[in-house]
Amino acid sequence: MDTQSSYEGAFASPPTDSAQAFRAAMRAMARPGTIEAIAGARAPEPFSEAAASLLLTLCDPDTSLYLAGEHDNEAARAWVGFHIGAPLLPADRADFAVGTWGALQPVSAYKVGVAEYPDRAATLIVEMPSLERNGAQLSGPGIKDTANLNLPEIGAFQANRRLFPLGFDCFFTSGQSIAALPRSTRVSDLSAEEAA
Amino acid sequence: MTAQAAAAMDDYNFAYLDEQTKRMIRRAILKGLAVPGYQVPFASREMPMPYGWGTGGVQVSAAVMTPDDTIKVIDQGADDTTNAVSIRKFFERTADIDVTERTSEATIIQTRHRIPEELLNEDQILVYQVPIPEPMRFIEPRETETRKMHALEEYGLMHVRLYENIAKHGAITTAYAYPVKVEDRYVMDPSPIPKFDNPKLESEAIQIFGAGREQRIYAVPPYTKVVSLDFDDYPFDPSKANHPCALCGSVTSYLDEVIVDDKGGRMFVCSDTDYCASRIRRQEQAA
User: Looking at this predicted complex, what is its ipTM?
Assistant: First the structure.
């Protein structure tokens, strides 16, 4: 994969592939904690296929993008420049940010929207080693009773929820899988409850 | 319709809209789902139909559509009205997707002012056509002010309006576009659905609202708390005409009043044509 040209990796059929990718992303965002399949695009290392597909589906010259940590490399910048054309901006001005949870820190830097326009908030694309339906317990809009997802952290998402209706929204990507955590979801630590 | 007219067109992009427009709409839908009930501004496009015919709903449907989808379009519950037929044909030609009149077979249902009687499931998306997305527009005409009222969660005027109904008429007379509060935060206009449909806003399906002329998109994710505004002593009443359907006999569905002559004769029939027709089919099979 490290020899991939920056001109490669687009959707084979952009209109229908991006439609399928968006449906997966929308289902994930509407039902926090569910894991959906998303595929079709390839970006340079270390981007997952899911993250690359999501970027092609949602980002364009109208959206600013922040590449965090190892996701900010020369090949990635060239790929984004050719396929997406999004201006690359620092974390506090970006509409979208992509990287591992560690590289995306501090998450307090991202746009959370303003009271009149809470939609003007950042969307984080968090690259994960794997996605599993265990770990933190989720509840709120889109969730029947409760759901579980292996979030990289609890506290940051609880703090984000306290800002509601402001706050950032997250997608989690790994391989060809995608899950989401909108700002509206309440997060609790299952293991802490069991220990108590 | 001739076979040639029904054939898909390839002069346009899949589902008519260009990709950059779809990305813009898709971003608005995702933010709408993240903040249930909040109206996300979007750069609504001109569509090949007039404003007021469902341009907002059509743009949302086009942005969420995949080639595997089956779409149903209803206008006041009916599949066979001009508006519904035109929009179905539009997507048949521009997206080459399947269409249906059966609620249970559809994956996307675009609706003008009704929620189907049949309960929707997790795999379905309900797209509403919305004329005036702002629930407080008739109380406060300035967008700058209503936006501030939403920001401050200042919804007192909305209750005053309902109270004035009671003071004047002895009951809340708002019968459609009945305001709701979503997830204890945003007051939302559920589009001009009859208040009979309000309890069905708490659904398993994803609900997306598109207002083309007013350039707003908002959404209600599945299993989201949606409460119709009311008072302790005047609770919300999802009323309907107190008759059985004249065709299928249903006593639980929402009814349209149809004038049948010029001597005051009238009948009440189900507004949801698919629900009514499938009940009649079942009754005929049983007989």
Answer: 0.96
